[in-house]
Request: fold
Amino acid sequence: MIHAFSVDVEDWFQVSDFEEIVEFSAWSWYESRVIGNTERILGMLAEARVKATFFVLAWNAERHPALPRMIAAAGHEIATHGYAHRLAYEVGREAFRADVERSKKLLEDLTGREVLGYRAPSFSITARSLWAIDVLLDLGFRYDSSILPVRDQLYGIPQAHRFPYLISRDGQSLTEFPVSTVRCAGRTLPLGGAYLRVLPYAYTQWGFRQLEAANQPALIYLHPWELDPAHPRLQVRGKRGVSTHYLRLRSTEKKVRRLLAEFPFAPIERVLGLEPVRNEECWADRALLARGDR
Reply:
């Protein structure tokens, strides 16, 4: 069983919990740590000989063009996390389309590689924003990873499928690959992200074993800032009235290293058996990419 490892490439101040005090227009005022933290993840993956999918927030790629190139040059899949990290159900259909289309084109232009996948900020394709799937189909995406089959104040469609499934409309189709969940004490709980960081490693390990027993690949995710306990502190309530953003940051790296050692991983495109289109003319020498703008 090959599982899928993914990274949501956001900087520490770009998370939904900080929206109340960090406006999009002020992002450039904050200390950016995304390059160093992403390099840290790339190093861990290289040591474990694992390739992954990186959902890159395209604002970061526009500001640091070397970022997606560095990831792609290391052999990882580039997918998009949108441009401005706004919740789909808050911005509406037209603004959502413009954001996603802009992000896809920008990442493809920088890497010379087709972007097959999308993940909405904070998994914000919910019952209020199912029109987003039509937009993704129209833009030619091959898969989405935005619908979580859980009940939560911020995201989720509780009745959605827990495992990968095909969505077809008007002759177009994409695969929905939800971040993995497990059934525990009558509830459906996610793996990865805050659940990897906050809960004991035994929970994640048990969840992976449950999915393997069901013959299903796991899909897990994390953020670069979760490996950076020294990033700046802001006082926030979060969208749920409480934020887990700073909890147990010091334990994340150890858990991730153990996970990479215990289970086999690959990019989402490989787990789903998808073939991307590459434009070799857009690739530059790797040494040149390494010297690019940071």
